[in-house]
Amino acid sequence: MDVTDLSLGELKAALDSGKVSAVEATQAALNKIERNKNLNNYVTVCGTEALAAAFLADEKRAKGENGALLGVPIAVKDNISTEGIRTTCASKFLKDYVPPYDATVVKKLKDAGAVIVGKTNMDEFAMGSTDETSAFGAVHSAVDAERVPGGSSGGSANTVAAGEVPCALGSDTGGSIRQPASYCGVVGLKPTYSAVSRYGLIAFASSLDQIGTFTRTCDDAYALYRVICGKDKADATSSDIKNITQELNGDVRGKTIGIADEFTKNLDGGVGKRFNAAVDALKAQGAKIKSVSIKSFDTALAVYYVISSAEAASNLSRYDGVKYGARAEGYKDIAELYTKSRTEFFGDEVKRRIMIGNYVLSSGYYDAYYLKASRIRTLIAREYNAALCGCDALICPTAPTVAPKIGAQTDPALTYLSDIYTVPVNITGLPAVSVPFGTSDGLPVGVQIIGKAFDEAGILGIGKALEIAAGGNGNA
Amino acid sequence: MLRPTIGCEVHCELKTATKLFCGCKNEFGGEPNTHCCPICSGFPGTMPALNAKAVEYAVRAGLALGCNINRFSKWDRKNYFYPDLPKAWQTSQYDLPLCVGGAVEFEVNGEKKRVRLNRIHLEEDAGKLIHDGGESCVDYNRCGVPLIEIVTEPDMHSAEEVVAFLTELKSVLKYTGVSDVKMQEGSLRCDVNLSMAEDGAPLGTRTETKNLNSFRAVARSVAFEIRRQTEVLESGGIVEQETRRFDDNKGVGYAMRSKEDAHDYRYFPEPDIMPVTFTEADIQRIRSEIPELKGPRVKRYTEKLGLPPYDAQVLTADKAVSDLLDDVIALGCDAKKTSNFIMSEVLRLAKTDGSEDVELLIDAPRLAEIISMQAKGEINNLAAKQLLSAVWGTDASPRKRAEELNLLQSNDEGAIKAVFDKVLSDNPSQVADFLSGNDKLRGYFVGQVMRAAGGKANPKIVNELLDRLVKEHKK
């Protein structure tokens, strides 16, 4: 048995039954990470700390103690703060920044006994859809090394896809979990906004950011979600999660699943085929398919880039060379210190978003851009919620295409289009999961299931039905 | 004739135990960067947890000033770069502040005056820059201290009115218990907006002089700016809309930045803090927590304690003084004696030069002890003054200090009688004169006995001995 082949659930059972120790599982993960170094999945691998944590986990288990993730290796995206371990957001600005505290989710992982093996590569400050904007170099897909893993949580998706770890945390502001999950062929869950504390997640766009999970199965996603969700005093926007169930229900008989007409326009051939196959599979298992309409669908990308850039411009203003992080040399005064540091240490994509953000908030333009976008945001949320009123969930492709080649995307506006299905979900705050459903030309295709607020169990149940239909290998 | 029109923005730090968004101590002073944490230092990934007490304090201040409380209030980010602002935005309130409307009423030169308030909102203070030998350092201790900003309508027209307004505002804020309002420590700061126009004409272009932190600086900067704008206008010039500073040492104001250089703060709603809503019951509860304000106290002092109206005004100008009076009376001291002693002696020590702040460095139990020692004749009036100075700013026991300083007067009739008899035998002719009816000599004998007793004989007893002497002589 190769321990790295096990899913989270399988590994946990093997650990609990004593078939494998936490140290063995962790060492196997670290070995595989080392072997796959060229994929560039990690900004920081913390082998020593991981083995120490694994050793403690084995000791605990020997004493009869347990925890939901006791001894399970996990990777954490490098924009989630880890005390004593550098957290870079894949930016030159923070390349040596070591947080003095743990994010709430990291605390929860540690409390559950998880073993953090490293911090995964990503698009700089989570801005990007390909993982190419990282200051530490692009990530190469585990499926096809010439291709991108998607982004911005590309490292987290790819390390799970490469079988290095059974699970990883990512963050999703406009699709940054679901789109790479789709490109890499793993399960990526973006929980309801507020279901998981954001305290310690280095903010990109605070009203859209959400921490979520990468796993190989929907059951695993739910197991990990249960560990990290819930009210946190440190995050005033977080919610109490009450409707936790023990097991997912993969039976879709009698369930109504909505498809908006707007979803299937301009769909790429290969992705379209897989999507239709997924819909057929759900129908075959007894689900009812209902046609709905979301007229504001086309406006979502514009709304997203106005709001997320505005918040990003503000959130990233703190990187000024005065405090933590890097400081440029050779400045005459404070203004030059700011300018030189920000010029040198931010990448192009980040600068682009900061400029858009400041533009849409500046006096004279606020009403036309930010205010208008906020109003349309309300409208989009209303339409998705209305569509969900008569359905259990909505279904659409996760991304319009399969993973592109590294370096193929040169026009940022075209890259932004890859998030067309995922972005509106962040705008509404609803939960969604990308579940792999076969391949097109050998490249994974994901299907996105969008649910009612806090119905993570519901959408993962439907995802489980697709897993069953795909027969485990995603090739139904 | 040109007439000035003036409005103020007053910043007042709230004295909550902790800061607005984290658990750090809200305390003046301290070694630089010792009252801060990842949250108030703006570390990546941190989030604010709103201090409910600060919200209540802001609402309490608003209620005491007659404001309407918005039932739905939210926070916004005011974005600008400055090294003392670690997040590069100030969390403030833009379009839905906690309190709107309200007014401050006071008298200037015997005339009643009413300054309307536009709004009061809650925001966080920034840190401090310390410039030293070509280097600049930042102290984040003050970052995240809760502040209320009180914005007036342009209802004032002279430096005198502005100072009277601030005096009354400061008094009300102190009464509500939400702030220490110490101008010297920067817990009350004022920005002054001023423009000049002919009577009846539309308002002129205004300038804003920022960060005035004493009444004296406010008065002088207003006078300076009136003079400056008048000169500009009368010589045919145009007043530029600008932000100015006032150098209180030199007594000169100067331009800081023009309208073109004005910050664009790019306000937008703060996504990390939930809006606050209030029910009628919440507001009633906060209203019930407002301590007895100045008006009712003046009434109580004149009607119940029989103090003159002037005294009642002086004693209530500062809440701490009024509290001290109430506490000392509650400890059994006579109201009139206590109020006289506080007005003549305590306030003399409490008001330091060049400051509007009253600093009471004596607590009620010890002041009561001094006053009751005086009432019982254990010390005389002069000794009471000396004793107050001696224990001021210390935690010494008045009785112990009085003993150490030899201030206690003798009430030992036997001992006084011995000295008294000696004085009589030394002054036979004066005794004869006194007994034949020259009562003016009474003072002479009291003085002689006091001198012989080293100033510590209770004059009351000496007088009694003289009375007895006269009585016996008449027999």
How would you sum up this structure, described in words?
The complex is a heterodimer of chains A (476) and B (475). With 476 residues, chain A is of the alpha/beta class. Chain A has 2 domains: 3-252 and 400-470, Amidase signature (AS) domain (Amidase signature (AS) enzymes, Alpha-Beta Complex), CATH 3.90.1300; 299-371, no CATH class. Chain A has helices spanning 8-17, 22-35, 47-62, 104-111, 154-161, 178-184, 218-228, 269-284, 300-315, 334-345, 348-361, 367-389, 412-416, 423-428, 456-470; strands at 42-45, 73-77, 115-120, 167-172, 187-190, 210-215, 256-260, 288-292, 393-397, 432-440, 443-451. In chain A, strands 1-3-2-4-6-5-10-11-9-7-8 form an 11-stranded mixed sheet, sandwiched between helices. In chain A, α7 runs antiparallel to α15 and α9 (300-315) crosses α11. The two termini of chain A are 26 Å apart. The model of chain A has no long low-confidence stretch (mean pLDDT 95). Chain B has 3 domains: 2-282, no CATH class; 292-404, no CATH class; 413-474, Arc Repressor Mutant, subunit A (Orthogonal Bundle), CATH 1.10.10. Chain B has 15 helices and 17 strands. Chain B has helices spanning 52-64, 159-176, 215-234, 280-288, 294-303, 309-316, 319-330, 335-350, 364-375, 381-391, 398-404, 413-426, 428-435, 441-452, 459-474; strands at 2-13, 68-69, 72-73, 76-79, 89-92, 99-100, 103-108, 111-124, 128-132, 135-139, 146-152, 188-198, 207-212, 242-247, 252-258, 268-269, 276-277. In chain B, α3 links the parallel β13 and β14. Chain B starts with a strand and ends with a helix. Classes of the chains: A alpha/beta (476), B alpha+beta (475).
